[in-house]
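ok here's the first one, seq then struct tokens
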Amino acid sequence: LVTSVIPGCGTGLDPMFRYLCDRQAAWGIVLEVLASSGFLFSLALLIGLLVWSIWFCLSSRKQRSSIGGIVASMSMFLLATAGLFATTFSFIIRLTPQTCPTRVFLFSVLFSLAFSCLLARCLTLLGFAAARGWGEPGVALGLFIVQVIISTQWLLIVLVRDKKSCEITQNELVMLQIYVMCLLAIGLVFSMRFLCRSCFNYSYSYKKAARYRGRIQSILLSITLLLSTCIWMVWITMILWGNHNVGRQPQWDDPVLTITLVANGWVLLMGHGLSQVASLCKGEAKSKDMPLNFSGWTSPSADIPGRGVSSLRSPYESGFSMTVSNNIDITR
């Protein structure tokens, strides 16, 4: 019995792992390298953010609470991004009853965590009171748990109640992502709203640097969500219709999903992860303002950093009286 040797792989390798080393099907090796790089970069950013936040809190204890919420939210976002890169390997490996639960659960759950963090950030920037401070990671976790329940329920129904092997069709996979797509769509709408406000509305911030950082952040946030939307439209179209129409289904299904994970992971990492960490660290290093709090752009009652003023009031609300004395000649 003669067994064929896969180019680039050793003898006796299980065929389910062939795309990790097969030089003839180079897509697996290329995406493996990109996913590994993204995973290491995400972990490096996460460790750097945590080390910087610890240093900042020790050197400036008075502002410890001002960065806690955004550091927690960014940590969850970077964990989700690193998880997306790690999940790529479960799609490079062939679909089996063992890899199926990992694919079904982690694909939707990790994307929901990333998009929940982006949506919570949009709400914070728009001035929603529930998303300020530690409310930002709280909102992200609340949105994220919904998808965890949905994915867990599907696995319990299939594996426990029906006692079937984990087999999922492409239609079922897309159906499981409906909530994730809702998070993505709502986040895109809110980011565009914040972009319009930051570009066309007057800012109550008293420093030009804060206005500039807010404008840049709104642009990057909108671009990140817009590119993510385009990626999701492409992979859903390919999975449901494109691969079948060109006669490449199911051969192209795993490569399409793997490309989706890697491409969207890098978009999230470069568009929001790296830029947000750099903006946070740079902004805090140069000023004593609250980090990336642009709620005053959209609400005249928002706090102005460093001024100790809780709201901007009109002369009528402050009780200021502007009366003209009869002894003053007003014609002067």
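and now the second one, same deal
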Amino acid sequence: MPKKKTGQRKKAEKQKERQKAINNAQYERGLDQRPCNHLMECDYCKRTQKNRAFCYFCNMIQRMPVCAQCGKIKCMSKGGDCAVKHAGQYVTGLGLVGAICDFCEAWVCHSKKCLQTHACTCPMADAVCHECKRGVWDHGGRIFTCSYCSKFLCEDDQFEHQASCQVLESENYKCLSCNKLGQYSCLRCKQCYCDDHVRRKGFKYVKGQPIPCPKCGSETQEVKELSMSTRGYKYGRQQIATGDDDDDEVDDEFSYRGATGGFTFGGYTLGAGGIKAVRVDDDGDDDDDDNEEEDEEDDDEEDDDNDEEEEEGDEEEEINSGDSDKEAEEDKSKKDISEKLQEVKI
């Protein structure tokens, strides 16, 4: 029979496990708890940004540098761990620093442990935003990781990305390899897998641990535990104009015009059995309004001139018609007089 564990042995094993967890805690911390990703306010321009050796906005060196590995501001070590010896003195400021990290752009203290381990374990070694493709040196904000797909995000795109991250690439929840309903989903490659195809042959799975994705290797989760949605399409509608002249309606080369049986887009009018090119003036709306007003004034003047000419022609016609009527009456009266004279002679 195995020997029974004594209380002192149990206590020693628990302490050993606790020390192991403390040593591994620095590798399991999130980006928000890393000193190289802490918030920093510049001493000169007073702008908030990520912990940096030089201000992103004014390029000034900070008065109290913070180590990107251990997070300390003052070195109080009296042992032999310091690369720069300062026996019996506490060091702050530039006397604390030993290097600048090429990945996170932050100071690293002169401790030998920090100088040897930070460059290999820096969490921002490949921190490029998934949305805007910017690195740490290209923007002044902090770096985050998406809680669904675990990809790096900058401070400008983190909320927009996470709001649209739980969307599958397919149009349904079916397995990628068969037609069965997928029970597991990978939020990194945005695919669903059934219970048969999520497991690979020849791969040993740990009991109680999440099943890794067969495509990318990240952890999968059950679909029922997530608020997943599928890819959808949204189509725009053609708006039929009613003919009312409302001030709120915008009429430009990108608006739909349904009153004429078609619509205009990109400088061309589509519909009514053909395509017509629409001339678009790029000088501005003010020039268009001025040209329209001038054209309207010219049209009004031409209409007035035409109306006057028509009135003059009508008056001349009336005068000519009156003269012809008088001549006809005189000729008739002369004929009547001549006929009476002939009767009298007879």
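notes on #2: The first strand starts at residue 39 and ends at 41. Residues 285-345 form the longest helix (61 residues).
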